[in-house]
Amino acid sequence: MSGHDDDAVKHFESVQDLASAKGVRYMPLDQVVQLPIDTLLDRIETLANRDQRPDPVGAAAVLGTKQPPALTVTQALETYWALAKDKTFGKSEDQKRRWENPRKKAVRNFVSVVGDKPMNHITADDMLEFRSYWQERIEIGGLTANSANKDLILLGEILKTVNSMKRMGLDLPLDGLAFKEGEKPERPPFSDEWIRTKLLAPNALMGLDAEARTIFLGMINTGYRPSEAACAAPDQFCLDADIPHLIVRSRLGRAIKNKNSKHVIPLVGVSLEAMRAFPNGFPTYRDNDAGLSSTVNKYLRANGLMESDDHVVYSLRHSFENRLLRAGVDDRVRRDLMGHSLNRERYGQGGGLAFKAEMVQRIAF
User: Fold this and answer.
1) What does the pLDDT average to over 216-233?
2) Gyration radius of the chain's alpha carbons
3) Rounded Cα gap, residues 319 and 192, in angstroms
4) Which three-class secondary structure state does DSSP give residue 246?
5) DSSP letters of 261-280?
6) What's the gap between Cα 133 and its chain centre?
C-alpha cells in the first residue's frame, strides 16, 4: 500500500525500503543489469511469492525500474531544510536566517539562469551556463571569485544532500566548476598609538549608542568577536568575581561559532571599566546582533576614527592578538584567549584565569 503513495518522494523511499526488506539494496536498472549473473538471478528469485506470480511493486524495488522522484531545484531546497536540521540546532532565529539566506540566494540565482529544472534533468551544460553567468558578473559586475564559489558550493551542498539522503542515485555534474580565488585581504590591526589617541580620546565614541560603544570598548583588551559579548546571557558576565571575566559559550537559542570558541576571557583596564555600565549584558543585541558591526563601522568612518580605508571593527581583534604576540605571550594562551583552535589536544587550563589575566594586563589599555 505504501508503494502506491501519491507523494513521489515517499513512494520512492517505500520502494527502497521494500528492496531492503527483500534483502537487497535498491539500485537503478542500469546498474542492476551490470551485476554478475548469479547475483542478478538471486535478486529475481526474491520476487517469487506463494502462487509464483511476480509482484510489480516488488519488481520495481528489486530490479530498479522505479525512477527517482523528479524534484525540481526549488523543491530540493524545501526538502533540504528538513534534512539539514542538525546544522541549525541551538541557533537563534537570527542565526538561522543568516544561515538560510545564502542558500536561498544560490538556488534563486541558479533558477534565474537555468530554470527550475528537475534534479535528474540537470546537465553539465546547465552547470557550465550557471558558471558562465558568474564569470560575466566577475568580469563586468566587479564581484569576486569568492562570491561565485560560495553560490556553487552551497548549490552543490543542497543537491548532494538531497540526492544522498533521499537515496536518489543521481550522477550530478557538480565537480570542476570552482573559480580560482585570489588571496583574501588581511584586515590591518589598529596601532597602539591610534587606539590611545583616537579611539580612547575623551568623548570620541559618545555619539555611538551606549551598548554598541561598550561592546566596542570591550574588544580592546579582550579581542573577542563582537557577537560573543553582544549575544551573551546575563550569567555569562562575571564582573564581581575575584578576577572579572566573560564566559563565552552557547546558550539556549544561540550557538557559538564552534567548539573552540568556548572560552573564558579576563576583563581588565578600559574593557572592564566599560562593561560595568552593563553588568547583565546587552538586551538590544542579545537576540539580534546583525546590525552591530555595521553600526560601529559606519560611526567610526563618519567620525574619522578608522585608521585607514581597510580598517574595520574586527581590526581591534587583530590588534589584541598582535599585542599579545609582541609581549611574548605563549601560543597556547593566545589561542585560548582568542577562542582559536589548537593543533594538538588541550591539556589543563592553560595556566588558569589568574595567569591569563596577568598576561592580558601586560598589554592592556
Assistant:
1) 91
2) 28
3) 8
4) strand
5) G-EEEE--HHHHHHHTT-TT
6) 25
Give the C-alpha separation, 147 to 144, whole Å: 5
Tell me whether strands 245-248 and 263-266 are parallel, antiparallel or unpaired: antiparallel
Using a 10 angstrom Cβ sphere, with 0-12 exposed, 13-18 middle and 19 or more buried, the burial of residue 50 is exposed
Cα 12 from Cα 4, distance rounded (Å): 10
C-alpha to C-alpha distance for 158 and 163, rounded to whole angstroms:
9
Q: What is the pLDDT of residues 17-29, one digit of tens each?
A: 888 888 888 888 8
Q: What's the Cα-to-Cα distance from 184 to each of 117, 180, 181, rounded to whole Å?
A: 34, 12, 8
Backbone angles phi, psi at 263, to 5 degrees: -160, 170
Please compute the mean of the pLDDT values over residues 99-114 and round it to a whole number: 93
Per-residue pLDDT of 265-298, as tens digits, reads: 999 999 999 999 999 999 988 877 778 888 999 9
Q: Which superfamily is assigned to 192-363 in CATH?
A: Intergrase catalytic core (1.10.443.10)
Alpha helix (H) residue ranges in the chain: 8-21, 29-32, 37-45, 56-63, 73-83, 93-114, 124-140, 145-165, 192-194, 210-220, 226-230, 269-275, 292-302, 315-326, 331-338, 352-363
Contact 223, 317 (CB under 8 A): yes
Domain boundaries, the chain: 2-63, 73-165, 192-363
Q: Tell me, yes or no, if the pTM score tops 0.70.
A: no
Q: Which three cell numbers stand for residue 186?
A: 588581511
